[in-house]
Amino acid sequence: MTLRVQRIAGVDGCRGGWIVVEADCDLSKAALCVAPNWNAINSRAAIIAVDMPIGVSERGVRQCEVEARRLLSPCASRVFKTLPRAALRFSQDDWNAANQWSKRQGFGGLSKQIWNIRPKIKEIDNVITPTTQTRVWEAHPELAFARLNGGRPLDSKRTKAGLAKRKEMLEAQGFTNLDNWLREISGRRAKADDLFDACVLVLTARNILQGCARQVPALAERDSRGLRMSIAF
Fold first, then answer.
1. Distances (CA, A) of 138 to 50, 108, 163, 183
2. Quick check: 87 and 100 in contact, CB under 8 A?
3. Phi and psi at residue 136, in whole multiples of 5°?
4. How large is the greatest C-alpha to C-alpha distance in the chain, in angstroms?
5. Given 94, 120, 157, 223, which is the most exposed site by the fewest CB atoms within 10 A?
6. Does a structural domain hold residue 2?
7. Domain that holds residue 59
8. Residue 230 and residue 82 in contact, taking contact as beta carbons nearer than 8 Å
9. Of the candidates 141, 133, 113, 120, which has an alpha carbon nearest to the alpha carbon of residue 38?
């Protein structure tokens, strides 16, 4: 009898859409693609780990982010505070209006970083359900790299040293095609850190599949749609 090998995938947002790395147990044979939107991701993976908020609270405060920032201290700023669900109704060019509205509600301001990824939050929110969350999990590459590094955050991925360390760690895990992939994504509105983040989330997806993933909080919250608000790593 031939056993079916389950596939896993890591997904990270990039300027060109979504960068997807899919693999089975042999990471040297992983596949790469850049999808223009979430619905264009044609993954056969049993588990998909994605670096994007899934589940949006009414007040814009999620315990998973609070705990993730604590774990990444003193690099807590690498985990953005998510926007309140009602902020999704504003148009993308209305950051100022949405920011002022959020402050008036007592929710605090909306950072430009979270506003810039708001379209991708909406892409997932438009299609995700509590049922599909058995397959699609929110993850965070900084937590994933820190786990590989004995719980210590790496140098910023905006630095040459930080990128080099991420590449070195991924190659040690079995990703042997990174140089080819870096050439492949050139000109496709995706950067090296997008690729490395997607790769490390493959490892998170594997942890989830094998039942050894960690997640914060230990007991997941649910948003008004019943979506799980937790971060796996």
1. 5, 24, 23, 28
2. no
3. -105, 120
4. 63
5. 94
6. no
7. 8-232
8. no
9. 120
Contacting residues for 110 by C-beta, under 8 A, at least 6 apart? 60, 83, 87, 95, 98, 99, 102
Q: How far is CA 140 from the centre of its chain?
A: 5
- What's the structural domain count of the chain? 1
User: What gap in Å lies between CA 230 and CA 55, rounded to an integer?
Assistant: 8
Domain presence at residue 145: yes
Mean pLDDT for the chain? 96
Question: Per the domain annotation, does 1 fall within a domain?
Answer: no
> Is residue 3 one of the residues assigned to a domain?
no
Q: What is the DSSP letter of 44?
A: -
Q: pLDDT of the chain along its 233 residues, tens only?
A: 444 679 999 999 999 999 999 999 899 999 999 999 999 999 999 999 999 999 999 999 999 999 999 999 999 999 999 999 999 999 999 999 999 999 999 999 999 999 999 999 999 999 999 999 999 999 999 999 999 999 999 999 999 999 999 999 999 999 999 999 999 999 899 999 999 999 999 999 999 999 999 999 999 999 999 999 999 99
